Design the sequence.
């Protein structure tokens, strides 16, 4: 296997450490801040929300990622989003970065920030500063520290989300070295990425030129984080960052060669793994929904069609109810936008013990209701739709719409 | 008052009659078919779903509305949508129209059709024919007959929806005659019109040239039926039809004069009334949500922004929970698409006993939580958002997302 799964998350790559703490920003009795740190400065790339109301930490990070393009630490808090907070919100970012820079002996401009939680309120600077100092003195490169950090950034998530991979790349001396990639992310409401998704932080020890790091990230995000939807709401805080510190000792990747291709594939796998975990842990979700569109006329149309299905409230409610009302899947394809010939479409439900074809040659087919119920009782529900048009394909992931989603979001602030 | 509300619905205009029956297509113990009939042929206009999977009756109606542009009867059934039913679905339309034509002594090509219900199954022709013949022999111009018809086309609707208006227009001899407009519509899921909405049938006795009838309808639909959303799903069956039989005796409206303007205003009022009723009776809804966007740069941007808010799952769940989490409204404006300056936006919640400003000058404001709860406990929740950009404005209507929406749609077929 060229790409190997390994244990761990953000601390899997050489030279990265993590910490977390309970700063008491909003939640009681749990950690709510996380810090990532690299022993040396990193090439940095990122993608951010397309929402017009960009949270203060998003604006802060964009300046770094589009400016100096290097960073050495990330500070994240859960509970308050620092969004729609005006000038005061921005100065809180500056103060937090300065506090972290001081504690870590790096410039404030090397500190990336992230926030998730309620939109509107200002963050309490005293609690943030306390948390930053505590975390700076308890950084650890252990797998446990990475896992603890991934737990600290959760809001309504029910499980923490982390993953790590390894690939082998040539070193300067012709020998082979192992390059590591790790990451953590959090959902799980306001998930309908349009540039990237909620919060996801990736670390790697690869040596790579920054433009290639950004290129790889921007490309893989299109088919991973941008292909999941929980509720159709694109957050004010969506942030995906990657830090590459070069400590693996590989021959620096400076062009789109085989090493770049392998790294890009590994990055795709890592992002897909984290993205699918987010979709499956959507607020209140009991099922993951996977919609694969094949033989579409263009890649972008395949993406739009697949996303439309996993975003449909009616499809999501039907999966919750284990109801094989496949007309709703067709309906969601039909209003997605792209033109297609309904008579050429073929829709199949893919079960663990076989498939069920629902629609072919312009007609809804009779099907075995018991078999359908058996498939719809699985945790991961997979549909394939062959558009009968071209060679493009795309996959989107979502989750079902449940009583708990309504419950969680009917009373989120309290 | 130039435009007067009058009692009744589809039978309010001269020469129109209605009937309904229990054909037993899907439901037991209730009516499930409706018929509208005009004593004389009508100028006909319509708008239809933009879904690529257009139901068979939609294709049938489009041929009439874009072809001969005249019709004399409408036959509607609830329970089965006749969508994704291929050639067989289309021949069922032909057979139903032929049966109605025979019973009513008019050509089959003068019979418009509508269906709503489950996508996929074929309609039972024997039950349809039985229903058509029964209705043809029991047509009545009474208000009760119109109301009964509006009840027969309901699916998950909790209340029937009808309205009627009157205006005065000049007759040929210079005297004044009363022109009537009436209508009925049904929701209440799969409501996110992109050409028009689920099923709505309007009747009027005005004498008007067909191109002007279509123009008025196409224009008013943009700010009425196209501005409501229940769940973001654009149905395969969306149909809005208007039949004008000319029996009011007004001087025929042949150009965009004062008579046309008054008729257009009345048509707007009628469509808005029916559209708002549909939004407020969204599946499982407990609140109507009205989002008014003012001072946007363009009319289309105002529409897109307003619709984005009433379509947001997070906003809808927050209204259900009576939670003044206004950041979600800002968030939905921010991802809607149109560019704007967040610092110029002002967001207000409009209560019966006063307003609450939530956001101004780039900041979420502190507010009186008790007053917010009082306003959010009203049945109709109104927000106004001033974009601080131009002169355009638009209003959209939606409803809250409740446990009952999930319940209804988790088990719709059974």
Sequence:
């Amino acid at each position: 296997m060229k790409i190997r799964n390994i244990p761990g998350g953000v601390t899997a790559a050489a030279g990265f450490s993590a910490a977390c703490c309970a700063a008491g920003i909003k939640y009681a009795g749990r950690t709510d801040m996380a810090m990532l740190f690299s022993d040396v400065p990193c090439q940095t790339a990122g993608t951010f929300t397309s929402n017009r109301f960009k949270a203060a930490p998003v604006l802060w990070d964009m300046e770094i990622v589009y400016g100096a393009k290097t960073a050495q630490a990330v500070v994240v808090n859960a509970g308050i989003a620092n969004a729609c907070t005006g000038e005061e919100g921005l100065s809180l970012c500056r103060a937090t970065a300065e506090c972290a820079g001081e504690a870590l002996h790096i410039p404030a401009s090397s500190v990336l920030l992230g926030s998730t939680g309620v939109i509107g309120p200002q963050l309490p600077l005293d609690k943030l500063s306390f948390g930053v100092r505590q975390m700076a003195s308890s950084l650890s490169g252990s797998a446990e520290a990475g896992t603890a950090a991934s737990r600290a950034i959760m809001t309504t998530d029910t499980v923490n989300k982390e993953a790590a991979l390894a690939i082998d790349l040539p070193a300067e001396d012709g020998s082979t070295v192992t390059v590591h990639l790790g990451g953590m992310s959090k959902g799980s409401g306001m998930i309908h990425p349009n540039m990237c998704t909620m919060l996801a932080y990736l670390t790697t020890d690869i040596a790579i030129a920054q433009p290639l790091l950004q290129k790889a990230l921007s490309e893989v995000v299109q088919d991973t984080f941008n292909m999941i939807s929980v509720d159709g709401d694109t957050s004010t805080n969506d942030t995906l960052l990657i830090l590459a510190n070069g400590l693996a000792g590989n021959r620096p990747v400076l062009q789109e060669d085989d090493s770049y291709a392998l790294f890009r594939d590994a990055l795709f796998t890592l992002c897909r793994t984290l993205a699918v975990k987010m979709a499956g842990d959507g607020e209140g979700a009991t099922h993951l929904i996977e919609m694969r569109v094949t033989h579409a006329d263009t890649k972008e149309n395949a993406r739009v069609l697949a996303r439309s299905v996993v975003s449909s409230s009616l499809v999501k409610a039907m999966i919750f109810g284990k109801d094989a009302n496949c007309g709703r899947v067709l309906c969601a394809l039909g209003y997605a936008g792209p033109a297609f010939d309904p008579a050429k479409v073929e829709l199949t439900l893919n079960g663990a013990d076989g498939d069920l074809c629902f629609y072919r040659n312009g007609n809804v087919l009779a099907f075995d209701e018991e078999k359908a119920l058996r498939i719809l009782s699985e945790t991961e529900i997979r549909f394939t739709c062959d558009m009968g048009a071209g060679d493009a394909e795309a996959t989107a992931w979502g989750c079902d719409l449940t009583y708990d989603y309504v419950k969680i979001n009917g009373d989120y602030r309290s």
In short: The radius of gyration of chain B is 22 Å. Chain B touches chain A through 68 residues (CB under 8 Å). Chain B has a mean pLDDT of 91. DSSP finds eleven helices and 16 strands in chain B.
